[in-house]
Design brief:
Layout: H1 4-24, H2 28-44, H3 46-53, H4 59-69, H5 76-87, H6 94-108, E1 111-118, H7 124-138, E2 142-149, E3 156-161, E4 164-169, H8 170-183
Parallel strand pairs: 1-2
Antiparallel strand pairs: 1-3, 3-4
Helix pairs in contact: 1-2, 1-6, 2-6, 4-5
Length: 184
């Protein structure tokens, strides 16, 4: 298992280098879209993630897979960056690099990431209401939502922005009520 802190420390300079290349070519959003696609792909395919993590797989095999999985509309600089990661034997931290790149992109665009946990998937109107609430809380320009569904909440939502947590779930309300009743 990879150490999260060590992985983040190793990934940070690579994410910053990728941001530097993106800025110099005015491709920050395009690289962001490519990074999001890779994060999704690695999350959905344990086999691909394990393939990149395996130190015994030949470098050329990893490069061939990268060239195969990236679509033609992927920027050549982004593709070359991934090939460089293979050469430097850092492809195993691709997910962490992409996550950190997206964090840098959010910082650049003055966008905050809000994790929303709800009992059922949110409608578009509910998403907009959550975004407006987060903008009011943080004074950010934009809000990017990361949604998760947890039926154990019974109803309502939990919104996490950085270290702030708003628990407007029924489960949270019941827990607070229980604490009040037991402390009386």
């Amino acid at each position: 298992m990879k150490s999260t802190v060590a992985t983040e420390e190793i990934a940070a300079p690579y994410a910053q280098a990728l941001m530097s290349v993106a800025k110099s070519n005015s491709l920050t959003e395009a690289f962001g879209n490519d990074a999001r696609s890779l994060i999704t792909l690695l999350g959905e395919s344990k086999q691909l993630s394990d393939f990149f993590d395996n130190p015994f797989v030949q470098t050329e095999s990893k490069k061939a897979v990268i060239k195969r999985i990236l679509s033609d509309d992927t920027n050549a600089s982004f593709r070359n960056f991934l090939l460089l990661l293979v050469d430097r034997k850092r492809i195993y931290i691709l997910d962490a690099i992409c996550q950190q790149y997206l964090a840098l992109l959010r910082e650049l665009n003055q966008t905050v990431l809000a994790e929303v946990i709800s009992a059922v998937p949110l409608s578009s109107e509910q998403e907009e209401a959550v975004k407006e609430r987060v903008i009011t809380m943080t004074n950010a320009r934009e809000v990017e939502l990361s949604q998760k569904v947890d039926p154990s909440l019974i109803g309502g939502v939990i919104i996490k922005v950085g270290s702030q947590v708003i628990d407007a779930s029924l489960r949270g309300q019941l827990r607070r009520l229980s604490l009040r009743l037991t402390s009386s």
